User: Which sequence fits this backbone?
């Protein structure tokens, strides 16, 4: 990570990995809208499969931590590269708000991830590693617990509101980030225009999908 | 002469005595500026006025005054080379401004471009990046090959030519929120890597130029694309992608 291009490429690779992960996360969550059984089965598989728990999950944690730590490092370094600010700067004349505020959208995503982990990951760790319960069952009842837990979280309108706002910022992050990541790894060719159109679709549809899921469970919980 | 009437303007200009002093913005009035004059001619009018009053003129860089040397700079109303596109400050016309307008004029701001005096900055960091690899080796012992004897594909010749139009003005750095020099360095790396003459030093060139760029204290590119918009020569972001590719290839395959 000694040179600017090495940092840039590693930032992009971690981001590309996160975007693939996000797609997979979405694919599982969206099933909860159609079928509690499929959602439960998939969640149970993800939550208890050895490869996912002990190989993919550590890679994911590393990817996330790497991405935001490097994001902050870049921000600090870049601020230092202009030690005296302009009195008047018209950034809007030549670049998008999203591209100039990746650290803002990124920071808000990070805050949201704090809540997200408090909601789902910490209880999950507690159940599995502290209480040692790997059955995935609801205590004293039949059936898997994941769907019920999911619905329970989306009862509070405040939490649903926070989720929605967070995904708007994820969308803004990806509206610049998607095509930026390809440029960073040196891919700028005849496919770039098509790819950045696809990127805009991805950046809007995936976060919107997560918002739809949250709203769906808010208005349809048992 | 165009029919439009002369303009009166208020200028807010960065004044700084020398590299060590701290500077400040100072207000000036200029009157009777023709809308057909260039921005630098307007600055000349200001300076003539200052000199006749016995005051110190505002220093700014310029040379060719026809958009080819890259010497003129100035951050005008929050944009490198002002509000017009694909022009240098010497090619910027005063008709882009309104009569009675207040215009803010600042030097390029980057740690790697320290202010020397007023609006003049030291861009020798660009020269040192060039010296680190922005050249080709040619045989000058008397049997130099004719350049046209080496076939070059039209596509690559065009791209190299486009990259070669970079005049090293530094607007890309000045405008980048990260003060990154990657458009400039990208243009120089791409230009040579696309040509057969540039192959000998291909790997060393990109590694050494990027190393020097980092040493000079330029920031990290985050692909905002502001440089491409403000560049007077329309240097494309594709050149940065080419540099990233060249750098990756070189660092993975270079033998120590
Ligand atoms: C955890 C909080 C996060 C922070 C603090 C953060 C911060 C940043 C920053 C500062 C950048 C700009 C750096 C650059 O372009 O070189 C960036 C780029 C990017 N981020 Fe994030 N980010 C976060 C989460 C995410 C997530 C969850 C995703 C995707 C699912 C993501 C996708 C991207 C993409 C695609 C880029 C563009 C990479 C590139 O330009 O090469 N980020 N992030
Ligand atoms: S890339 Fe454009 S803006 Fe940057 S130095 Fe070259 S000509 Fe100037
Ligand atoms: S003075 Fe030469 S480019 Fe402007």
Assistant:
């Amino acid at each position: 990570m000694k040179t600017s291009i090495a940092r840039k490429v590693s930032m992009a690779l971690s981001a590309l990995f996160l975007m693939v992960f996000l797609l997979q996360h979405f694919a599982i969550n969206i099933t909860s809208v159609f079928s509690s059984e499929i959602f439960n089965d998939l969640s149970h598989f993800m939550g208890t499969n050895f490869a996912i728990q002990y190989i993919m999950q550590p890679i994911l944690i590393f990817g996330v931590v790497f991405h935001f730590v490097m994001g902050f490092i870049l921000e600090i370094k870049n601020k230092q590269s202009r030690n005296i600010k302009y009195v008047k700067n018209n950034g809007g004349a030549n670049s998008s708000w999203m591209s100039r505020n990746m650290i803002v959208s990124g920071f808000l995503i990070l805050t949201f991830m704090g809540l997200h982990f408090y909601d789902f990951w910490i209880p999950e760790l507690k159940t599995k590693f502290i209480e040692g319960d790997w059955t995935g069952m609801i205590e004293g009842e039949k059936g898997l617990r994941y769907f019920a837990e999911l619905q329970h979280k989306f009862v509070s309108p405040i939490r649903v509101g926070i989720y929605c706002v967070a995904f708007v910022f994820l969308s803004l992050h990806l509206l610049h980030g998607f095509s930026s990541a390809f440029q960073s790894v040196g891919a700028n060719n005849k496919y770039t225009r098509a790819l950045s159109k696809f990127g805009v679709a991805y950046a809007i549809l995936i976060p919107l999908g997560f918002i739809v899921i949250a709203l769906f469970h808010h208005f349809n919980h048992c | 002469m165009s029919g439009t009437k002369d303009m009166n303007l208020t200028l807010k200009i960065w004044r700084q005595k020398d590299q060590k002093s701290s500077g400040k913005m100072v207000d000036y009035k200029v009157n009777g500026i023709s809308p057909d004059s260039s921005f630098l001619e307007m600055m000349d009018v200001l300076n003539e006025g200052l000199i006749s009053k016995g005051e110190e003129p505002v220093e700014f860089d310029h040379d060719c005054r026809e958009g080819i040397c890259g010497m003129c700079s100035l951050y005008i109303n929050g944009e490198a080379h002002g509000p017009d596109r694909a022009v240098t400050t010497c090619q910027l016309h005063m008709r882009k401004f309104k009569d009675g307008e207040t215009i803010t004029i600042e030097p390029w701001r980057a740690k790697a471009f320290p202010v020397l005096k007023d609006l003049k900055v030291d861009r020798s960091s660009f020269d040192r990046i060039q010296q680190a690899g922005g050249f080709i080796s040619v045989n000058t012992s008397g049997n130099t090959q004719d350049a046209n004897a080496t076939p070059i594909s039209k596509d690559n010749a065009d791209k190299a030519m486009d990259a070669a139009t970079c005049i090293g003005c530094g607007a890309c750095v000045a405008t980048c929120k990260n003060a990154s020099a990657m458009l400039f360095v990208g243009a120089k790396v791409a230009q040579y890597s696309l040509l057969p003459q540039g192959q000998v030093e291909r790997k060393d060139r990109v590694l050494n130029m990027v190393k020097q760029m980092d040493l000079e204290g330029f920031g990290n590119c985050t692909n905002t694309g502001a440089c491409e918009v403000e560049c007077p020569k329309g240097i494309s972001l594709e050149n940065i992608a080419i540099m990233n590719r060249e750098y990756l290839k070189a660092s993975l395959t270079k033998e120590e």
In short: The longest helix of chain A spans residues 4-34.
